[in-house]
């Protein structure tokens, strides 16, 4: 196929050859592929043994494979060690081979310094799920945490018949999305003055065992507990404790992310509502944003995409 043939024409010829079963399909596919742009992208996610991040990793790989007319060379890693030191080291390593990088990470000076070093090399960086800041411009693809928190608060306000104490679980205070969730949650009750008492948040550090212990302690220390907002990791342990607890009839529990455990908890009544990232949309926007960041002049500013979130109850899972 001559070099003068435009790429869209190559694509149409290849599609027609596929349809008729042309014997030279392999050669056409090779030439067509040669004419496509190539993007080297890197993604750092949290532990692969956590269902949400395993599902997100699969969705991002699929989105990369199916991306438009171009070729995406994706380097995706699940990190078991979530220390700032390890995240910074992996970010530096990816920047040697990738043209644009996205990561899920806590806000920490070591991570911010690594981001700035990578940006100075000309490699754009995008925060996934949790916003990140550094001296340079950092992109973001995820939810509006303030709206997530206020939506969760709305559920407590409208479902609870008698206001009481609400426990709050975070994964880690350094994840800015979870901090924004709490800020939005509290802002709703400050505005509406609904008579609820919001307890100080407890960090699970993404641990199911810690989530279970925190919920058990909340019921022991606060017999008038009327609900729990689980805004981070450790939710499977929290759900186990909730199932065993003696809860008032109008007890409200709001969780984060829809997967097998939270779906089952909605169905059996342990959870009242789940607020969730739209995984497939998040994955597609992540790939698109990484490529757009790569192709955009750094002086134009960071690429930011705020997604709408899904809301689930027992009636729509």
What's the quick description here?
This protein is an alpha/beta fold and 317 residues long.
Over the alpha carbons, how many angstroms does the gyration radius reach? 23 Å
The largest sheet, given as strand count, sense and whether it forms a barrel, is: 7 strands, mixed
Determine the CATH topology of the largest domain: Rossmann fold
Shape: globular
Number of strands: 13
Determine the oligomeric state from the structure.
single chain
Please provide a written account of the structure.
The chain is α/β, with parallel strands linked by helices and 317 residues long. It folds into three domains: 1-36, no CATH class; 38-143 and 279-308, 3-Layer(aba) Sandwich (Rossmann fold), CATH 3.40.50; 145-276, Response regulator (Rossmann fold), CATH 3.40.50.2300. It has eleven helices and 13 strands. The chain has helices at residues 7-20, 25-34, 51-65, 84-95, 109-120, 145-159, 176-192, 208-221, 235-244, 260-268, 279-295; strands at residues 38-45, 71-78, 100-103, 125-128, 139-143, 165-170, 197-198, 202-203, 225-230, 252-256, 273-276, 304-307, 310-312. The strands form two sheets. Strands 6, 7, 8, 9, 10, 11 and 13 form a seven-stranded mixed sheet that branches. The longest helix is centred in the middle third of the chain and has 17 residues, at 176-192. The model is unreliable at 1-5 (pLDDT under 50).
């Amino acid at each position: 196929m001559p070099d003068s043939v435009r790429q869209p024409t190559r694509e149409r010829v290849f599609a027609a050859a596929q349809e008729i079963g042309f014997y030279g399909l392999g050669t056409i596919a090779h030439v067509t592929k040669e004419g496509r742009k190539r993007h080297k992208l890197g993604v750092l996610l949290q532990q692969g043994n956590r269902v949400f991040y395993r599902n997100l990793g699969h969705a991002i790989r699929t989105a990369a494979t199916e991306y438009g007319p171009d070729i995406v060379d994706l380097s995706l890693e699940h990190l078991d060690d979530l220390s700032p030191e390890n995240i910074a080291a992996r970010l530096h390593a990816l920047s040697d081979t990738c043209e644009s990088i996205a990561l899920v990470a806590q806000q920490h000076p070591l991570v911010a310094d690594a981001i700035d070093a990578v940006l100075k090399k000309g490699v754009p960086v995008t925060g996934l799920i949790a916003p990140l800041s550094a001296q340079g411009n950092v992109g973001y693809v995820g939810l509006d945490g303030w709206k997530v928190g206020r939506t969760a608060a709305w559920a407590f306000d409208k479902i609870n018949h008698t206001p009481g104490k609400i426990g709050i679980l975070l994964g880690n205070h350094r994840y800015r999305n979870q901090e924004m969730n709490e800020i939005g949650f509290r802002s709703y009750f400050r505005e509406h003055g609904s008579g609820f008492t919001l307890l100080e948040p407890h960090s699970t550090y993404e641990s199911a065992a810690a989530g279970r212990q925190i919920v058990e302690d909340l019921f022991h220390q606060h017999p008038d507990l009327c609900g729990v907002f689980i805004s981070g990791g450790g939710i499977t342990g929290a759900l186990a404790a909730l199932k065993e607890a003696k809860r008032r009839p109008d007890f409200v529990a709001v969780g984060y992310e829809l997967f097998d455990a939270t779906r089952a908890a909605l169905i059996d009544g342990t959870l009242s509502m789940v607020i969730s990232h739209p995984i497939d949309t998040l994955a597609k926007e992540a790939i698109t944003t990484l490529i757009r960041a790569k192709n955009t002049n750094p002086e134009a500013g960071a690429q930011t995409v705020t997604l709408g979130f899904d809301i689930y109850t027992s009636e729509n899972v």
